[in-house]
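Researcher: I'd like a structural prediction for the single chain below. Treat it as a standalone chain; there are no partners to consider.
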Amino acid sequence: MNQTWRANELSPLGLAFVGDAVWETYARNHCLNLGVRKPNELHKRCTRYVSAKAQADVLARLQDVLTETELDVVRRGRNTKSAHVRRNVDVIVYRHSTGFEALIGYLHGTGQNERLEEIANLALRILDDSQ
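Model: Treating it as a single chain, here is the predicted structure.
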């Protein structure tokens, strides 16, 4: 993947925008690796990983393993006001999910691929264990 932007050039919402796409890819690959093949079932199963509630829940469980820098990225993502909030999601849950997405976007954008894999795999395990 050719990346010409730098993570430090993006706002927290910009990082969350990228993180959303990266996390979606992790979730879809995970569902495929679990053997889910039918499109409707794939959609339903992936929603368990990419919903705002799932992301907020994962973030709460990841707090102890994040570095100070990562926690700062999460805080900035969480505290940034967005003009858009989904109607069916609590504002606090939405902000926490934005913090999670900002973290994923930051790790991807700074090329910390090993750490991104570690956090993503831990998050997927957390979500699998809670279902």
